Amino acid sequence: MLRPDAAPDRLADVADVADVADRHATGRALRLGTRASELATSQSGWVADHLRAAGYEVELVPVRTVGDVSRASLSEIGGTGVFASALREALHEGTIDLAVHSLKDLPTTPEPGLVVAAVPEREDPRDALVARDGLTLATLPEGARVGTGSPRRAAQLAQLRPDLDVRDIRGNVGTRIAMVRDGELDAVVLACAGLSRLGRLDEATERLDLSTMLPAPGQGALAVECRDGHAALADLPPGVVVTDADLRGLLADALEHPPTRAAVTAERAVLARLEAGCTAPVGAHAAPAGLRPAPAEEAGRTTPPLTLSVFVALRHPQRHEQTGSDPVLLGRTVAEHLLNRPDPTRSADRPDGGPGVSHTGA
């Protein structure tokens, strides 16, 4: 339960048993808004379990979105934000206290009055192939029917295997896999994270390497969103005052994973600069740069360098990779490079060296 008297740095401290017991004796359950799909409730349940482990009671509140009820393609029903708008409306109305989104479904433009209070540790960001007869992307026969609802996946499949028959599909994970089992399709491409959260990862016949197919920006990561500001939560018991600011603090303490936040910030900065939505043919993945040395101009910074890889097919297929320590600057720089590179065959090296190390290929 919520503690009205807890200091921010104590809200997620579970070491003190008496403190946890006190939380369970005070306030009310946190109302966590979630889409009603099996995958969404699995994701929200994961967040709820972590908050419960930190001593807070949580109630799941199903919220139906346009994306859940429409069978049209994402590009036809609005693309970016189609899964998030109803949850955000419920936050604004105060019927829920927090919402859990797949980060890749969130528009890059900030929502006035709301804030992403926590980005938990990311699941496997890769895509997976679920194919008949144990087939892989390389062993699918010519003309094989491959289903996906993602223009990003379709664009990369067209580049990797132009002989495939790529078909636009909708439906939840179970529905899409059934299309393969029933013989309607030879394979579907799905997110590893979604399969894992549903306990169906063993049905993947191949996990596609990041060098083969780049995921959607933010894929595999969750966003825990709540209201900005300092208003008191609604419907608290008499004498209990817990504010939105208190809630933001406890969510960050219990759930935030800074390396994931840095990586997805870089990926979404690319998307924001390209002015693309979640259905645009853009793939991006950022990860710690590892043993690759940071450029001289990055020396002395405390943020570990990231290597950001991006695929974009806005005009023609391009792929670009660059390293830097400022996630937002890195994402914007890569986007600028792609926007100003009409010829995908020219050298990737920037004349001025840029703010990072880059490697590009069509």
Task: Describe the structure concisely for a colleague.
The protein has about 350 residues and is an alpha/beta fold. About 30% of the residues lie in helices and about 20% in strands.
SSE blueprint and pairings:
Blueprint: H1 17-24, E1 30-34, H2 38-53, E2 58-62, H3 66-69, H4 74-77, H5 85-93, E3 98-102, E4 114-118, E5 127-131, E6 145-148, H6 151-160, E7 165-168, H7 173-181, E8 187-191, H8 192-197, E9 206-207, E10 222-227, H9 244-255, H10 258-274, E11 282-288, E12 306-312, E13 318-324, H11 327-339, E14 358-361
Parallel strand pairs: 1-2, 1-3, 6-7, 6-8
Antiparallel strand pairs: 3-10, 4-10, 5-8, 5-9, 11-12, 12-13, 13-14
Tell me what you see in this structure.
With 362 residues, this protein is an alpha/beta fold. The protein folds into three domains: 8-121 and 221-256, Periplasmic binding protein-like II (D-Maltodextrin-Binding Protein, domain 2); 127-207, Periplasmic binding protein-like II (D-Maltodextrin-Binding Protein, domain 2, 3-Layer(aba) Sandwich), CATH 3.40.190.10; 260-361, Porphobilinogen deaminase, C-terminal domain (Double Stranded RNA Binding Domain), CATH 3.30.160. 30% of the residues lie in helices and 20% in strands. It has eleven helices and 14 strands. Strands 2-1-3-10-4 form a five-stranded mixed β-sheet, with helices on both faces. β1 (30-34), α2 and β2 (58-62) form a beta-alpha-beta unit. α10 packs parallel to α11 (327-339). The protein is globular. The model is unreliable at 3-26, 72-79, 291-299 and 344-362 (pLDDT under 50).
